[in-house]
UniProtKB/TrEMBL annotation:
Keyword Transmembrane helix belongs to the record: no
A molecular function GO annotation: medium-chain fatty acid-CoA ligase activity
Name listed for the protein in its UniProt record: Fatty-acid-CoA ligase
InterPro entries in the record: AMP-dep_synth/lig_dom (IPR000873)
Pfam families cross-referenced by the UniProt entry: AMP-binding
Domain AMP-dependent synthetase/ligase: 76-271
Domain of life, source organism: Eukaryota
Gene3D superfamilies the UniProt entry points to: 3.40.50.980
Keyword Electron transport carried by entry: no
UniProt lineage: Eukaryota, Fungi, Fungi incertae sedis, Mucoromycota, Mortierellomycotina
Length: 271
């Protein structure tokens, strides 16, 4: 399965980093905390090696955003095998089919009200929705928040509150963990509220719950009225207006925009 693990929207990241000066200036082993405003300063924008051929081959570093570079790759390699998920009825997608899924999800996220800079959390194991969400959010300027599937209620509440997530994608359960039940206990209001119009006391920023069930195919929306089925979010035959709006949104996305936030496991303390 194809996955992207990156903390910024740069399409190609060199393997070498300028660490020596940073360690010398901050003190080896010294713990530092930064606000978002401080992170955006020049000091924290110089982590990439500057130069023309820092990787094998010739040519310049790729300065495209991930969404732009991804579209070019599909044009070049669309017929090649892109995604295989054996536990989903041996699912096989070419890169072009994968790209169509990504674009369908981009439209659905836009229609649901998510915009550039909003945070969408993922609480589930490996499946076909995972890489689709990563590329769709990167193309849309939405920040993907990756949650450990082993999180319990306290860790979940901590992480979603800390980054003010607007949307959460989850599976009903995993092994002995019943995600749906934990959500109902944390957010009892969602049992009766309408999708995309959530308002909860414990998570005031949360507006949307999306459930992906690739095993039982039993919609959890029967239990959680405020949840939307992942498949219902995909828009495969859009109106021209949606794609026009999306194109305008993407014009403001650069390779400096944050595409995901990765929390610690929470094994030795709160994430």
């Amino acid at each position: 399965m194809l996955f992207l693990r990156a903390s910024s929207s740069r399409a190609a990241i060199p393997s070498r980093y300028l660490l020596a000066n940073r360690l010398a200036s901050t003190g080896l082993g010294q713990k530092r905390f930064y606000t978002l405003a401080q992170h955006k300063s020049d000091r924290h924008q110089l982590s990439f090696v500057r130069g023309t051929s820092v990787q094998v081959g010739t040519g310049q570093l790729v300065e495209d955003s991930i969404g732009t570079y991804w579209d070019r790759l599909i044009d070049r390699h669309g017929d090649r095998l892109g995604v295989v998920v054996k536990h989903e009825n041996n699912l096989h997608w070419s890169f072009r089919q994968f790209g169509e899924q990504v674009d369908s999800l981009c439209r659905g996220l836009y229609e649901s009200g998510l915009r550039k800079g909003d945070r969408l959390a993922v609480w589930m194991p490996n499946n076909s929705a995972w890489p689709t969400l990563q590329y769709a959010t990167a193309k849309s300027g939405i920040v993907l928040v990756t949650l450990n599937p082993a999180y319990r209620k306290q860790e979940l509440l901590q992480t979603l509150s800390l980054v003010e997530c607007k949307s959460l994608v989850f599976v009903p359960s995993l092994k002995s963990s019943n995600f749906s039940q934990m959500l109902l206990e944390l957010l009892p209001e969602i049992e009766h509220q309408s999708p995309n119009q959530l308002l909860t006391a414990n998570l005031p920023s949360l507006r949307q719950l999306i459930v992906f069930d690739n095993e039982t195919d039993v919609p959890e929306t029967a239990r959680i009225k405020g949840a939307t089925k992942y498949q219902d979010l995909l828009i495969k035959n859009p109106s021209p207006t949606i794609d026009e709006h999306l194109q305008k949104e993407r014009q403001g996305i650069t390779n400096r925009d944050i595409i995901n936030l990765q929390f610690t496991s929470g094994t030795t303390g709160l994430p």
